[in-house]
Amino acid sequence: MQLRYQFRVYPTLGQQDSLARAFGCARVVYNDALAAREQARRDGARRISDAELSKQLTAAKKTPGRAWLGEVSSVVLQQALADLNTAYRNFFHSHTGKRKGAKLGAPRFRSRHDSRQTIRFTRNARFTVTVGGKLRLPKIGDLRVKWSRQLPCEPSSVTVIKDSMGRYYASFVVDVSSDPLPMQDSEVGIDLGLTTFATLSDGSTITSPRFFRRAERKLRKSQQSFSRKAKGSSNQAKARRKVAKAHAAAADARRDFAHKHSTKIIRDNQAVYIEDLCVKGLARTRLAKSVHDAGWTMFTRMLEEKAARYGRYFTKVDRFFPSSQLCSDCGVVDGKKPLSVRTWTCRCGAIHDRDMNAARNILAAGQAERRNACGAQVRPEPVPALCGEAGTRRERR
Predict the structure, then answer these.
(1) Catalytic residue positions?
(2) What contacts 24+ positions apart, CB below 8 Å, involve 281-287?
(3) pTM of the model
(4) What whole-number distance in Å separates Cα of residue 224 and Cα of residue 65?
(5) pLDDT, tens only, 91-111
């Protein structure tokens, strides 16, 4: 299993210039290769292979117009070509059905004004972590890293990231084996919501923090200030960083919230069942801002990844399962109910809290699905057909 370990790095002014040069060279190589492939497609020519693109890159370094590409590590440029190849592969697999999920668009040109700039070094670049704890990168130097924990093994690659706030990060990819946690007797079903972020079948709830809603006033003022600055001025750049800082603070707090609660749920339960919400559809409704602010997809992804890492069982219950309509006591489907109905009484006399009842139904549905998946083989092994059985060819006499 591959994991990412991300740490904050603090480059000097000279190293920031070197990183900016590397970001720009990687972007130019990516855009040149994309333009070459698009031109070949418009001309009706065959697809340009990765080897041909690499040869074109080598030849471009010898021309006056692209000689500055030699100022950065060649591994960074080759990884830019690999990123383009991955983008095309995902695009084609998405439209041919080999890739699950929504269809992806064709690769687009990168811009120097993108809020996120990245470069990647592999083992071929011979990056190292020095004895003093600094990250040594070719043609950049030793970057000071703020280590929050040690790497479990030798990383296979490192990606240097610059975000919209101007912060720099080093993201290491390491290969680790699964680390199962001690067995637990408890299982839990989770119902996600907006007023209450999550309701668990064991009776506990997680209050929705609404990070974006709480930061809206600060964001509004910073965006107003940004809109009043002269275009291209240094004051506009300062105002833009303030807007980015407010957005980053909300995003970081949301990510930290999801990490802490997903870790606690995985640690305390042997099996986790959660409803499969159509977040993309809900984001088209009048609740779009609240849906995006909740971060359900990120939370669900963290649960799934941590369950695989720590030896827990995780599954999603079908999104069409009527968890809010079904009585968890008698099993009667009581029909659809508007969101304003938070409690309801079943014909059997049971009084249900809407979210708690849904969480219990999700738990029961997940347990039933798990038992069916772990039972006997559904399809038996093929056996020879009996003589004279319908559909077999008889010998002529």
Answers:
(1) 191, 275, 355
(2) 287/194
(3) 0.83
(4) 41
(5) 999 988 888 877 889 999 999
